[in-house]
Amino acid sequence: MEVQVAPLRAWEDFFPGSDRFARPDFKDISKWNNRVVSNLLYYQTNYLIVAAAVVSIVGFLSPLNMLIGGTVVVLVFMGFVWVSHNKDILRRLKKQYPTAFVVVIMLSSYFLISYLGDVMVFMFGITLPLLLMFIHASLRLRNIKNKLENKMEGIGLKKTPMGIILDALEQQEDSINKLADYISKVKE
């Protein structure tokens, strides 16, 4: 299936008034995770633009350190994904605790970057955009279009860059499994 770039959402939809933002239910982790995944898929192009702006500013101020930092994070991410696909115990941990998995990747990257060079580039150029995305995705309430797009991505009708990353983190399999269960029940 061909990878499609998600459309840029209107900025009024991306960052409206406070009525479309709410604190997530910290007691229901699966619901919070579903909100984050759904928003990451729906607003992925907006997140990419915000992240590119932050990375560009930091990259302009310190290009070599930004290049080293980005390379380290990508290599660490790919290494952790590869290991988790080849080791069942790590795969289960990644699926049960996706946030912890991302935190381990970020901490590993932090230590490697601190060994290689400038930690502040890592903090502002790499971690800040990820933190901004996570905060927005956690607080932004979903709408009908958001839920529909998430379902289309989950059942494989379309494939986007964020969907590929979430698949690597195994955050979309539950949606596919739920849909398959529903279809099998309907057939019976």
From TrEMBL:
Localized where?
Answer: Cell membrane; Cytoplasm, Cytoskeleton; Endoplasmic reticulum membrane; Membrane
Q: What is its main location?
A: membrane
Q: Which UniProt keywords apply?
A: Acetylation, Cell membrane, Cytoplasm, Cytoskeleton, Endoplasmic reticulum, Membrane, Transmembrane, Transmembrane helix
Give the signal sequence positions.
none
What's a Pfam family this protein contains? PRA1
The cross-references to InterPro entries, in alphabetical order and at most eight, read:
Prenylated_rab_accept_PRA1
Segments crossing the lipid bilayer: 40-61, 67-85, 97-113, 119-139
Q: Which domain of life is it from?
A: Eukaryota
Q: Provide the topology term for how it sits in the membrane.
A: Multi-pass membrane protein
Give yes or no: UniProt keyword Iron: no
Q: Give the UniProt record's GO annotations in the biological process aspect.
A: negative regulation of transport
Q: What does the entry list under GO cellular component? A: cytoskeleton; endoplasmic reticulum membrane; plasma membrane
Q: Which family does it belong to?
A: Belongs to the PRA1 family.
What is the protein name for this chain?
Answer: PRA1 family protein
Question: What species is this protein from?
Answer: Trogon melanurus
Gene from which the chain derives = Arl6ip5
